[in-house]
Amino acid sequence: MTIASDAPFAISLEDIDELTELETALVNVTSWDGMRAEFVYMTPERAGRILERNTSNRTPSIDRIRGLVEQIQNGQWDNNGASVVISADGILIDGQHRLYAIVESGQAQVILLVTGAGGETILTIDSGKVRTFKDYLEIQYPDKKDHASIASAVSLLSRWEQGVRAAALFGSRGGRSFRADNHAMSDFYVENRMHVDYIVQHTNRMGRKVAQWKGFKRALVIATHVLELIDRNDAEVFLEKVINGEGLEAGSPILAFRRQAERRRQGNESTPADMWLALLFKAWNAYREGDQVQNLSYRRGGAAPEAFPEPK
Predict the structure, then answer these.
(1) Is residue 4 classed exposed, middle or buried when 0-12, 13-18 and 19+ CB atoms within 10 A define those classes?
(2) Could you list the pLDDT tens digit for every one of the 312 residues in the chain?
């Protein structure tokens, strides 16, 4: 007999007689890697005590709790193998809706209880509603003010650092998906937290001034990161002039960029973020070289699309 490597405990009935001592131990295991799994009779009182340590979950859905309460009251509680998960330090990681339903219904139920899980488990738990990186940030960093912007910035910056460019950087045009998983984004944020927070604050402030440039803010996140790594002083001056348009002379590549941006605004165009970024990089390269530019453009598609510009 064989045991599939991706499902080490999946054993067919025909093979039972052939189980080795080791395989028998695996089939009967109730604990592994510090975790323990067991079926327990969960009373409303015990569920309430566990919920007192419910500090790592999103706001519960009232509709979902009501639905589960109705199932209990109608004798339709579904033992589908879904577990209640508690971390090694006693924090509830998953299963809050089932526990709330037991408390609200006043009726005990048999559930699968897993204890001793690692704290990082919250990054991968999927309890019927996908847990996003924004959800993780809200739980781990409740004092932060703009979890959505931080999550978006981490996603973009981690892709850039993986070498992703052009449309794929922003997940558009049906190309390969480069979405980092929650673990990868968590690691990236932990390692670059001060830098990411700075990028978010900076781009939020600047982006508000040109909110009418649809799609621009995401490009600004990457541009701020990349250009400041090349030359921070030049980048600060360049981006400030891009935003406020002050002190620009005829032939300035920044002025050419702003004209292009205004044409798109007046035409009520929703410009793809990779187009904005390409135009910014072309203006930056000309600015650094001291070149005169009257018109700025980027051919994104068609029979002869331009290569995505690399900032210098």
Answers:
(1) exposed
(2) 333 334 444 434 444 444 444 444 444 457 777 888 988 899 999 999 999 988 777 788 888 898 899 889 988 887 777 889 998 888 888 889 999 999 999 999 999 999 988 766 666 564 455 668 888 888 788 888 899 999 999 999 999 998 988 888 887 443 344 455 777 888 899 999 999 999 999 999 999 999 999 999 999 999 999 999 999 999 999 999 999 999 999 999 999 999 999 999 888 777 899 999 999 999 999 999 999 999 999 998 889 999 999 999
Length of the chain: 312
CA dihedral 64, 70, 73, 78 (to 10 degrees): -60
Q: Measured between alpha carbons, how far is residue 18 from residues 5, 9, 11, 29, 189 in Å?
A: 18, 14, 11, 18, 49
Residues 216, 250: Cα–Cα separation, whole Å = 24
Backbone angles phi, psi at 109, to 5 degrees: -140, 155
Residue pair 82/113 in contact by the 8 Å Cβ criterion: no
**Helices then strands, each counted (H, E), the chain:** 13, 5
- Global confidence as pTM: 0.64
Residues 8/26, Cβ–Cβ less than 8 Å? yes
* Whole-angstrom distance, CA of residue 149 vs CA of residue 147: 6
The domains located in the chain, with CATH, are 33-130 (3.90.1530), 134-289 (no CATH)
Q: In terms of DSSP H, where are the helices of the chain?
A: 21-27, 44-51, 62-73, 96-105, 133-140, 147-161, 166-169, 182-191, 193-209, 216-230, 232-244, 253-266, 273-289
What is the rounded distance in angstroms from the CA atom of residue 156 to the CA atom of residue 164? 9
CA separation for the pair 253, 255 (Å, rounded): 5
One-letter amino acid for residue 267 of the chain = G
